[in-house]
Structure formats: C-alpha cells, structure tokens
Write a structure and sequence with these properties.
Order of helices and strands: EEEEHHEHHHEEHHHHEEHE
Low-confidence stretches: none
Helix content: 40-55%
Radius of gyration: 19 Å
Strand content: 15-25%
Number of strands: 10
Bound molecules: (R)-mevalonate
Structural class: alpha+beta
Length: 316
Amino acid sequence: MNDIQTLSAPAKIILLGEHAVVYNQPAIAIPVSQIRAYATTKVSEQFSIVAQNTGEHFDLQTLNNQIDNALSSIVRNTLEQLNKPAPNVTISITSDIPVASGLGSGAAVSTVICKSIALAYETELPLETINELVYQVEKIHHGTPSGIDNTVIVYEKPVFYKRSEPLNLFEVEHHFEFLIADTGDKALTHISVGDVRKLYVSNKEKYGEIFSKIGELVLFGRKALLSGNRMLLGTLLNQNQDLLRQLTVSSERLDQLVDSALNAGALGAKLSGGGRGGNMIALVDHASREDVHHALVAAGAKNVISFSLPPENKGI
Ligand code: MEV
C-alpha cells in the first residue's frame, strides 16, 4: 500500500422504526455523510491503533488481552476473515460522530478499522462481509441489535431494513430537509433495548401491537419519501414519537426538543436511535428551518446539524 491512506465512514440517523425493528418490523435509516469517522493508515514497525480523540494507544498485545472489547473484536474478526497476521501499520482513528448519541459512532469506527486492515493488505472486502463483521461487534455493544445501524453505515445509502430480509437500499430523489439536535445526554442503546424487551415480555399483546403500529408507519414513510410527500412524512414522525413515548424511550429533554421544534414550525419531529438521550430529528421546510434551528438551540440542544436528502457529497 501507499505510505499513508485515509478512509472514512458516515454517521447514521434512524428516520422511522427504531426499537420495533428489533422485533422484525421494518425501519428506515439514512447515512449522515457530513459527520464521519476517519482512519489514517501508515506503514510502521508494528501493528497499533491510536484513538486520536482520547489519546489512547492500543498495541497488538493490549488488543489480544481484551477479548470482549469492540476494538479488539473488529481487529481479530477482520484478520480471521483475511486469514492474515496483523499487518505492520498504525491506524489512527478520529471521529466527528458523538459517542452514545444514537448516531452510530461505534459501527462507523468498526467499519473504518475493518477497511483499513484490508487496505494494508491491498485488498477490499465485499461490503456484505464488512457488514457481517461489524454486526458481530455491534452485538458486544448492543446485546440484540437489529443490524440496521451497521447496514446503513457500511453501505452508506438510505435503507429500508427488515431483519432477515434481503438488503433493500433505496434512493431518495425528492428534496427533504432535516435538523438533528443533540440533547447532550449520553445514553447506551443496549439499556433502552433491554428495557423495551422487559416491557414486551411483561405484556406481549400490548407491546407487540405498538411494534406493529410502528411497522405500519414505516411502510407509509417509505411511500412519503419516494413520492416527496413532506406533510405525510412529518405526520408519521410525530406518530412514531408518540409510540416511542409509550415504549418509555423518550426523555424529558427529548420531549422538550421535539415540542420546541414543532412549535417553531417543524413538519414533524421525533427521537432517533435508542432514545433516553442522544439525538432527535426534525423535518423542516426551507421557510421554517432557521426558526426551528433557533428554537432547538434556545431549548438547550448541545449541537444542531442541518442535513438534507438526497445526501450531499460523501467524504473520503
Ligand atoms: C439503535 O440505533 C436502533 C435500535 O432499534 C436498536 C437496533 O435496531 O439494534 C434502538
């Protein structure tokens, strides 16, 4: 390989269907290409990974000693897949994706490490293989992940995702504008997923029905995206938020941001990802975008990102 190579993977946002997707309902997720994780690979004397954001440094021995760690798992699984020893490179990771915020930072970092190791051997693994390797690591973070996060990040395309169904990527031709706002509260997906499971086990009929209702919203959501129907998509986001509240995965701060966005003219708004903290998403139109942005900041959002479909330019 060349002496230095950089590659990257995007953040993701779930538009509709989180949590229910774990129970085999469909969901829609979109890559957020302007926020990314990056890996720079340099030839060196021995294998190591440097996490630039935290200053941590992992050599092969440290990684080998950490069996259940996400970083060591993606390294080990990738090397097993390639059937090679660790290459003599240093992989430096930086990421703009906030951690534990529902934007898929773990899956994006796993993706760039996997690709970088393959690159060190001047090869590219098929996306399907990378997706499976990253999914195995997601299981360490999330317990029973649906697989939607790794899929949207690895393929970097909007995905209509249903567990155990063939990959269904799609293109959005109509223009949609969104704002993503961070509550600043870190929340671990495996905890909210575990709590939803407890609710489901306590009353399968009630919660199974909520999952089915979410699944129905997602089917309409796909139609709204494909036909450019913003009013319908906004209504579906709001209905999805109501159902997510019933699953107890919203939070006071998420509700505040959602209400502020709607009061300022958003067409719809909901939490995104595991919930209890992390990010929310609001669908806006050109006229309301500035007002909604200001309202989210005034309501205490720690960071507000503007993004639109079809996706803008990808990174490296
Ligand atoms: C997390 O981004 C999405 C959840 O539906 C969990 C999953 O699908 O694995 C909450």
